[in-house]
């Protein structure tokens, strides 16, 4: 089940007032619609980008809030329309690949998004900008699980029956993690499917959102899960009794990106928004509040924060990137398995 949150509006219309003594005229007010997640991510966009960076330019921001699947579906359905319903689309790296392959995203012009010069080379793509990144780890309650997990496969251990929890909106990543834990390959999820069907006998719990999973971890209804390290960092700061372990077989990296649909109604404002997402101060704020690592070279984290949310060089060397082509091709089958066989 994919839960779509209600559409919400954020930000305020504003224009820069003309200088009292013949100063520059106000920037022409405009609006940009940002398709994004709600919750903590959407709130941080408002506090770190919309208000401090876009409002002074006379650009007001509305948020079109939804989860990954409905946002991707809407963009694809609107491909032939004269105007897209959003001007900036936030997305994970799988959807970025899918949308770029479908010809939906505009090429990012470096002259209009000059902050791309600071992007770490490994993250550069022609049709999107990388905003923040993290890795999928094993979250666990150290009061209930005193020996730290070592693998994604630890979720399959019968001693955690009834205490394993998943976020429904991360179904494709949950499937990929289970497949890695079961010894599967990036372009064949059969091992993961088999392992999840065995796990189903142990009554795992599936929650409609990341926030709902956090509540279950806080109440100790759930003891162990797969989740982004960044989320674990943020939830621990919020008082949830959790620790995390990077799987010894290698963790799945996650990159959150943003792009502009070719039929955006406000491309100039949209590219300014992409540029603002790469602002070093804003990226450091996301790191400090949500635990996601910056994607630009000039965003310097405090040493203690960097140590807590970053991977070691050895762990980075063992990262297990997803096969985007396979994930796109198998998306429907992965979702059908998750909904009709694992959750049913």
Keywords:
D-Maltodextrin-Binding Protein, domain 2, 10 strands, alpha/beta, ten-stranded mixed sheet, about 350 residues, 2 domains, globular
Provide a concise account of the structure shown.
With 344 residues, the protein is an alpha/beta fold. The chain contains 13 helices and ten strands. Helix 1 packs across helix 8.
List the helices and strands and how they pair.
Blueprint: E1 30-36, H1 39-54, E2 59-65, H2 68-77, E3 88-92, H3 93-101, E4 129-140, E5 164-167, H4 171-181, H5 190-200, E6 205-207, H6 210-218, E7 224-228, H7 229-237, E8 243-245, E9 252-259, H8 267-277, H9 280-290, E10 293-294, H10 303-309, H11 313-317, H12 324-329, H13 331-342
Parallel strand pairs: 1-2, 1-3, 5-6, 5-7
Antiparallel strand pairs: 3-9, 4-7, 4-8, 4-9, 4-10
Helix pairs in contact: 1-8, 1-9, 4-5
């Amino acid at each position: 089940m994919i839960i779509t949150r209600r559409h919400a509006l954020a930000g305020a219309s504003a224009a820069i007032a003309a200088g009292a003594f013949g100063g520059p005229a106000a920037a022409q007010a405009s609006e940009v619609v940002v398709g994004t997640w709600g919750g903590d991510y959407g709130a941080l966009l408002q506090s770190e980008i919309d208000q401090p960076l876009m409002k002074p330019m006379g650009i007001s921001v509305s948020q079109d809030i939804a989860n990954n699947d409905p946002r991707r579906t809407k963009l694809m359905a609107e491909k032939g329309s004269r105007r897209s319903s959003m001007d900036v689309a936030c997305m994970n790296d799988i959807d970025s690949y899918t949308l770029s392959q479908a010809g939906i995203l505009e090429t990012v012009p470096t002259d209009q998004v000059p902050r791309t010069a600071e992007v770490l080379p490994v993250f550069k793509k022609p049709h999107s900008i990388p905003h923040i990144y993290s890795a999928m780890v094993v979250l666990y309650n150290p009061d209930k699980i005193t020996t730290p997990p070592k693998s994604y496969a630890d979720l399959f251990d019968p001693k955690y029956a009834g205490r394993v929890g998943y976020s429904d909106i991360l179904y494709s990543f949950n499937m990929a993690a289970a497949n890695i834990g079961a010894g599967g390959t990036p372009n064949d999820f059969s091992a993961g499917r088999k392992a999840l069907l065995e796990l189903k006998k142990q009554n795992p719990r599936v929650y409609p959102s990341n926030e709902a999973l956090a509540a279950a971890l806080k109440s100790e209804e759930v003891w162990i899960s797969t989740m982004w390290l960044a989320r674990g960092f943020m939830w621990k700061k919020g008082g949830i009794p959790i620790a995390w372990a990077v799987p010894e077989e290698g963790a799945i990296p996650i990159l959150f990106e943003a792009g502009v649909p070719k039929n955006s109604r406000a491309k100039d404002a949209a590219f300014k928004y992409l540029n603002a997402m790469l602002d070093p101060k804003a990226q450091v704020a996301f790191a400090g509040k949500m635990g996601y690592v910056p994607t630009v070279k000039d965003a310097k984290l405090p040493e203690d924060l960097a140590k807590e949310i970053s991977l070691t060089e050895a762990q980075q060397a063992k990262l297990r990137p997803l096969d985007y082509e396979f994930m796109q091709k198998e998306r429907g089958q992965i979702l059908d398995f998750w909904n009709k066989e694992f959750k049913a």
